[in-house]
Every structure is written in structure tokens, then in C-alpha cells.
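As described in the Methods, two query proteins were run sequentially through the folding procedure within a single session, without resetting any intermediate state between them. The first query and its resulting C-alpha cells are shown here.
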Amino acid sequence: MRKKQFYIWLLLLTGIISCTKEIDIELEEGDRRLVVDAWFTTQQKTHEIRLSQTSDYFSQEETPKVSGADVQIAGGGDLWTFSEVSPGIYHSDDPLAHAKLGNTYTLSITYDGQNYSATDYCDTVPSLDQIALSANYDQNNALDWYDILVWTTELPGYGHWYCWRVLVNSEYVKDTLSEISIESDEYLGDGLTFQSFPIEWIDADEVVSGDTVRLEQHNISKQTYDAFIAILSETEWKGGIFDSPPANVPSNISNDGLGVFVVSAVSEAEVIVP
């Protein structure tokens, strides 16, 4: 009797598997949209802007780079022009281009007969007084990672948003949004002083003794903070069965452009890896 029941279930399972059908989904390509990745800070340096276009949903190819665009940033009585140094990558012509506190800056892009613009404000950033490294070890007592500890005081009054970026020997080691720490003073606390507070971390295999670790502390606008959270919510933080339906990510780029133009003041500090 048990053997008979087994064969019945086997037949049912075989029927279910044989009914599986591959379905091809065809999506309309739609118009390509400009995608902007632009970050302009108070640091006197060559700033970089990346321009690309959207691609088909199922495309396995790299997103198209945008070449031949006219790019500039204006604000605070200054006008900074950008030139294309490689496909889709534009650098400021002045190697000391920078934002100034208390000014609003406008990014202007002309491409393929279309004009795009975005604005953002450069607000004050708390002083990053000191940083230190705190070693952490795995169960075999091997060095695993370093916590990056900070000494700083949050700005008084609620309504400030921050992010932190890590460099080793002047090269960013956490350069994607999913790796950048971002926070609102709603959670940090208003006007608090932080001493030896772990705000970031770095893998031990990313540094060696004598390397210079630099931490950048940025004060970003609310529109930037909201855009970062929205992007993460639609990408890195997706995957659960209770996720909300996909939604368009907010952007401050006009003319139906995508991406974010970020202006931020920066305070930074360094430490040598022991």
C-alpha cells in the first residue's frame, strides 16, 4: 500500500514539473535618460562628474557613457568648467575648484540638444577633531578589522545630515553608496560631543602597517540624504517578501534626469596604521 502511494505522489510530482513553462517577458525600451553622479565639496581639488544613460532592464551590457556634454558648476560668484577626460567622465579644469560655505551651487549640463540642471546648498560641517583605529580580532586571534573612532561635536539644532567616506593613502576604499555611512542627527542626537565613537570600519586586509587612513566627514543636504536612503531602499535593502513595490528614486536633476548632484562641506582627519 505504501509503495502504491509513493508511485501516485511520484506521478503527481512529474506532472507538476512537466507543466513548467518558460515565459519570455518583453519590455518596451523607452527613452534613454541622463544619469548624473556629481559630488562637489569644499576640498580644493580636481572634482569629477560622471554622466551615463539608462539601458534596457534585461541588458547585460554596461550602461552607455555620455560623451560630448557641456558641464559647469556655478555659485558663490565662481564658475567652474569641466572637460571630458575619458568617456562619460568629466574633470574640473581648475585643480583647485571647490565650494564655499553658505552658498548654493547649480550644476548645468547640455547634451544632445537638451539642458539639465540641479542645485544644492553648502552647509557648515562639524570639525573632525581626531580619529583613531581600534583593532578587532577573530576567534583565532587573527586581526580582522579596524573600527574608526571619531572625536567630534554634532551641530546644535536638529536638521543636519551626514556621511563619512574612508580613504587609504589618498584612495577611496569605500566608494559605492552601499559602503558609505550616512546618518541623520535625529538618530545621532542634537549637539552631542562624541569621543572615541566608532563611526566607520575597515577590513584589516585593506591596509598594512604605515598606511595613512583618512576619514572625511560630510554635511549633506536633506535632499541628498533622502535620495541616498531611497536608492538603498530600492537596491541594497531589497529582498524580503514584505518589501514594498519598486518606486522611482528621487532626483534633483531637472528635465527627467536621474542621479544626484551633491554639494557638501568636508572636515577630515588622518591616522597611521600601527
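Immediately afterward, the second query was submitted; its sequence and C-alpha cells are:
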Amino acid sequence: MLILLLVRSNAEEKQIEMKIQQIDFNEIELPDLIFKYRNWSSEYHKTIITERKVFMASPSSFEDKLDCKIPIRYDLLSQREIFDKYFHYSKIDNPKRNRAEHRKHARKWTKKYPLSNPDNIALFQKKYFEDFFERFGILSLTAESENDDMWIKYSDDFKGFCVGFNTKIMFESFGGGGGNVNYYDELPLIYPEPKFTIGKIYYYQVFSKERKWEFEKEYRTYKFSQIPFTDETRNIVLPPEAYKCIILGKNMPTEFKEELRNSIPDELSHIEIIEN
């Protein structure tokens, strides 16, 4: 019974993608161009040009151990908020119950509240993040193409390249979900439903990072899947019109530059090549 109370309900599961899409990214000012730094020495990185592929990474693979891993603070709920939580889930899972029956259910589980136990919280967080990592794919980008720190860290110390994309076309090809990352001295607290909506929970998870990563000036787009991603389904082919330019690193070897130019497929012949 405890496990059933800790995992997401079937009814809620079906509404996750819809609720995430309710976040209004049209209110966020987005740059016209957005960039991805790559390393030409990596055969995998080359496919962003040769096959127009980008990889929607699982948050479990991120270098930053806190990125997309902010715990949901069930332990900070008041008695009233716990009651509201169970009342909320009762209405979702048992729509035929009347209000009195929903209240009776909520009072019963408020008294038993399994997430007052740290071991149960740990079990829930483990299940939650396993599910989150399997079903979310995130593509990390940046608004800056002349960021020395990014060239050094992600483009082999200026020996790699940087691809510029039309932000609107790219984000729309993923379903429209995307925006800028917010940086914090202290990561925000995240509360469960109904205190926070599912969309708000995932927004804070996906778009919150510690201040030390602010140099990246990161923007993200994402995909949510009702079924767990595979490595194959995490690879997304972008439309040719999303591509705008390729910037070659100032330390990129001549042979790499020639190889890159010769690897550009016909459908990307419109891309501007810029040498630093």
C-alpha cells in the first residue's frame, strides 16, 4: 500500500505532458540565435552536422550533480497542506466519490502520512527521479557564441566548432518547450501538488541551477515521453531550416576545418561558415 501511495497516479501520469505545456514560454524573451558547442574530434559530436542529430540527454548524465535533482519537500508540508494533497489525489483517482468521501480519505491519510518518515521520503525520491530521468530529455544550449569559457570547456579549447540555430524553429521542432536557465545562490524549494502544480515542479527542476554555472548563459529545450526513452529515441533529427551558421574555433586544425566543410550535407548548404 505504501508503494502505491508514493508513486504517481495513473490519472496524473496522463496529464503530465499537458500540464508542462501550460507553462507560457511566449512570455520569455528568447534570442534569435542559439548555440551548441561541439568537439570535431568526437565522431558522436560530428553527427550534429552530418546527420542533423541532437541528443536529448537524461538528467542522470549531467555533470552537475544537483542539476534537475532538487528534491520535492514533502517534509515541509503543514498538516493542512498534507490534507489538501490527499484530497487533491482522491479527486483525481476516484472521481465518483462525493466531497465527504474525499474528505474522509484525506483525513485518514493525513494521520498516517507515510512521508513523515525519512526512509519513506528517500524511497519516494528514488522512485520519482528514476521515472523523471527515464522520461525527460534535455538539450542544453547557450545564447552566446563568443564565450571563451564555453569554447574551452565544451569545444576542446577552441579546437572544435559551434553551431548556431534559429531559436524559434528549433524549439518548435521539439514541441515549443524551452527557455532560459535561472541561476541561484540557493536552489529554490520545490513543494508537491497541489501547493505547486506539476508544470511548476518540472519548471523548477529543469530550469534551475547553482550560480557557479552562470557563465554558461544556458537555454534549454526538452521532450517528455509517456514511455521511457531509449538511446535511439533520444536522438532527434532537426529540420534543415533550423541551422543558421557554423563557427570554427580559432585553434581548429586546418585538416579538421576541411573535413568539416566536406561533411556538410546538401540540405545544409545554406549554412554560413564563420572562422574566428
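The CA atoms of residues 82 and 113 lie 8 Å apart. We note this only descriptively and draw no conclusion about the first query from it.
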